[in-house]
Amino acid sequence: MNKHLYSISEVMELTGFSRSTVQRLIRSGKLPAVPLDAPQKDKFKPLRLPAKELSEVLFGDTRLTD
Questions:
Q1: pLDDT given for residue 36 in this prediction
Q2: Domain limits at 45?
Q3: H or E element: which one contains 13?
Q4: What is the DSSP string of 15-58?
Q5: Is residue 66 part of a domain?
Q6: Which of 17, 30, 35, 42 ranks highest by number of CB atoms within 10 Å?
Q7: What pLDDT sits at residue 1?
Q8: Alpha carbon distances (Å) from 2 to 21, 52, 55
Q9: Are 47 and 34 in contact (CB under 8 A)?
Q10: Is residue 49 within 8 Å of 5, Cβ to Cβ?
């Protein structure tokens, strides 16, 4: 998978972490996440995790961006 942004589900697949673990890591600031543009009426905006930062946190390198 060579992408610029990963969804929470894709991060779960890459790491084997549960959804709650990924969300907890995002809330704590250990995993970086950016909200996608969503209609104003939506209460929650979908989050995406940048590949470069995600790879550095999880693997210590840039394998997800190569």
A1: 81
A2: 5-59
A3: helix 8-15
A4: H---HHHHHHHHHTTSS--EEPP--TT-SSPPEEEEHHHHHHHH
A5: no
A6: 17
A7: 47
A8: 23, 11, 11
A9: yes
A10: yes
Phi-psi region of 58 (alpha: psi -120 to 50; beta: other; left: phi over 0): alpha
30 in a domain, yes or no? Answer: yes
What is the mean pLDDT for each group of 10 consecutive residues in the chain (66 residues)?
A: 83 94 94 79 79 90 82
48, 52, 58, 63 alpha-carbon torsion, rounded to 10°? 120
The number of beta carbons lying within 10 Å of the beta carbon of residue 38 is 11
Tokens of 29: 């600031």
Task: Please state the domain count of the chain.
Answer: 1
Taking the C-alpha atoms of residue 66 and residue 48, their distance in angstroms, rounded to an integer, is: 19
